[in-house]
Specification:
With 247 residues, the protein is an alpha/beta fold. Helices cover 41% and strands 11% of the residues. The protein has eleven helices and seven strands. The protein starts with 12 loop residues before the first helix and ends in a 14-residue tail after the last helix.
Length: 247
């Protein structure tokens, strides 16, 4: 759980959250190993990152540099966990998190954002939604059930053979690409089969569908899903230089 905290702020969030859950609630420390069914909170005066299941703390940049702790954490989450990363943006002011969720989406992760109408402070949710990368926009009450369903989907708990799921020449990809061209004006037919299959598989997980035939029908019937799949295929890379050392 990443909050914006003033350096001298005496946070009682650990104690407050501990009253609301049976899970242990812990203030993060350097080198702490993340355990299942635990809640970890960012401490004041530090930024928090994660790498291979280990939490790391670092002081925020000094001077007038804007500190964006949520973006910083989301980027580390995406780099370490890729398609298994889940980023959730809740009520808050400003736009922190909006850049970080793009990194999560690029890595194949899932993005969930609180619906603006249910947020006490809609700035952060509005900025996140405006990126077009949110897989789910929900009131907080609906988030747990959707998150659990997503995590339990067969594509999330295993690595299916995408070649078997969406075999080349089966006609499924052709129908999807035809629909995408109708809706987006872009012909995705020349994309690599593996790239298309991975993104389609991911959208099937979001839609909670397991059969490719069902998903083809869903795309053909839903303009919103066609647009969402098109955005997933066109996700832009936020890193300016692909090969930093060479540049």
């Amino acid at each position: 759980v990443i909050q914006h905290l003033a350096p001298d702020y005496k946070s009682l969030r650990v104690e407050l959250l501990a009253r609301l859950t049976a899970m242990p609630v812990i203030r993060a420390e350097e080198g702490m190993e993340v355990q299942p069914n635990h809640v970890y909170l960012i401490p004041p005066r530090f930024n928090l990152t994660i790498s291979d299941g280990i939490l790391h703390l670092a002081p925020p940049p000094g001077g007038k540099t804007l500190n964006l702790p949520i973006d910083i954490f989301f980027r580390s989450l995406a780099q370490s966990y890729g398609e298994r990363a889940v980023a959730i943006v809740l009520s808050g002011t400003g736009s922190d998190g909006a850049r970080g969720i793009r990194t999560v989406k690029e890595a194949g992760g899932m993005v969930m954002v609180q619906a603006e109408a249910s947020a006490k402070f809609a700035g952060m949710p509005a900025s996140a939604i405006a990126t077009g990368t949110a897989d789910y926009v929900l009131p907080v009450e609906e988030m747990p059930g959707q998150l659990i369903s997503f995590a339990r989907h067969p594509f999330a708990v295993s690595t299916p053979d995408t070649a078997a799921l969406i075999p080349e020449g089966s006609g499924h990809l052709e129908r999807i690409c035809t629909r995408l061209k109708e809706v987006t004006g872009i012909d995705f037919g020349h994309y690599k089969h593996a790239t298309l299959a991975r993104r389609i598989e991911r959208r099937m997980n979001v839609a909670q569908l397991q059969d490719i035939g069902e998903y083809v029908q869903y795309v053909e019937q839903s303009r919103n899903e066609s647009e969402a799949l098109g955005k997933d295929l066109l996700i832009s890379v936020t890193k300016f230089f692909r090969d930093t050392e060479a540049f």
